[in-house]
Design a protein that fits this description.
The structure holds two protein chains of two kinds. Chain A is built from two helices and twelve strands; from the N terminus they run H-E-E-H-E-E-E-E-E-E-E-E-E-E. By secondary structure, chain A is mainly β. Chain A has one domain. Chain A has a five-stranded antiparallel β-sheet, with no helix packed on it. Chain A is elongated. Classes of the chains: A mainly beta, B mainly beta.
């Protein structure tokens, strides 16, 4: 007998099969079920609310810290480096530079997409370096995207805008 | 004021509403199924005895967790004694209960196992540790093979 091996028998294997939907429907097996009603409301807060309102008007709004001078987007109420409340809004251009990107071939449910989507962080022109928002790229082949590519926002028509990040349809490369 | 232009009207503050879909079914398992069907159909309590060491599990198990050997079902009376209890004056939502509920840990006679259930037909001040109790079941036609088929335990 191997060192440490105990004289124990194997756990008995239960005779049977997997439970099927029929067993539950016909109450062949006992069970408990529950359907908890979990609802939530997530508020965007002062800064993002105004940012989203700006999108509806076709503007990208940022904030400026008057201590360190950084121009930040998405806007926030406090400068996280100076621990200082912010009180200056700035309007930024709807152009920028691809900071980083990723090509997605599947949707959030892991189903294959017909056309791959290009997700990118775009550093907005007029904001401090590396300040950017996560969005999608369009009108470009995935193979042709590169870091540092100049892009411009493609907005929804004004009447369709609802004050959401999707008011920008995608970002397309600027020629040249 | 932090922002020079602060949003005062709460309707202008954006929010996103969501709902988390959760739906689950928890089956009783081999031994649990036997226990609940016996309770539902015959109103009897079942425990499981290890064929090797003789430990009696309640609720029943399909195998002994000490020496991995098979168990056999044994019928028990369902009576037991209170080993611990707590009196609840508020429900799970924090609302005051009209009548306090007594939750007790009951050691089952003839087994090594215990069950948590409600006590009834007794005032909170009269409950004591070591009190003998016996189960009160729902009428047979109302039983559905759940732990709530036992309404409560009352002093024996």
């Amino acid at each position: 007998m191997a060192v440490g091996k105990k004289d124990i028998s194997c756990p008995p294997y239960v005779k049977g099969r997997e439970i099927e939907l029929e067993d539950l429907k016909e109450k062949k097996v006992t069970y408990v079920e529950d359907h908890p009603d979990i609802r939530y409301s997530f508020t965007a807060g002062q800064a993002i609310s105004k940012f989203l309102k700006g999108l509806k008007e076709g503007k990208i709004l940022g904030v400026k810290c008057n201590k360190c001078g950084r121009v930040m987007v998405p806007p926030r109420e406090f400068c996280e480096l100076c621990f200082k409340p912010i009180n200056e809004w700035v309007e930024l251009k709807d152009t920028g530079v691809v900071e980083t990107f990723s090509i997605s071939y599947i949707d959030p449910d892991a189903r294959p997409l017909e056309e791959p989507e290009i997700v990118a962080v775009i550093a907005i022109d007029g904001a401090s370096p590396h300040m950017g928002i996560l969005h999608k790229l369009g009108e470009v082949d995935p193979e042709k995207v590169y870091i540092g590519m100049r892009v411009k926002a493609v907005w929804k028509p004004e009447e369709e805008r609802e004050g959401a990040i999707t008011d920008i349809k995608y970002w397309k490369p600027i020629e040249g | 004021m932090v922002f020079t232009e602060k949003i005062i009207d709460p309707r202008e503050l954006r929010h996103v509403e969501g709902k988390i879909e959760l739906y689950w079914i928890y089956t009783s398992g081999e031994a649990g199924d036997y226990f609940f069907k016996k309770l539902r159909d015959e109103g009897k309590f079942t425990a499981a005895k290890c064929k090797k060491c003789g430990y009696i599990f309640f609720p029943p198990r399909i195998y002994c967790e000490f020496d991995f050997s098979e168990t056999e079902y044994v019928e028990v009376s369902g009576e037991g004694c209170v080993v611990a209890y707590a009196v609840a004056y508020y429900d799970k939502n924090g609302e005051k209960l009209e009548k306090p509920e007594i939750y007790a840990l009951i050691e089952m006679d003839g087994t090594n196992g215990r069950i948590i259930h409600l006590l009834g037909e007794v005032e909170p001040e009269d409950v004591c540790i070591g009190m003998k109790v016996k189960p009160v079941l729902k009428p047979k036609e109302e039983r559905e093979g759940k732990i709530t088929d036992i309404l409560y335990f009352k002093p024996a």
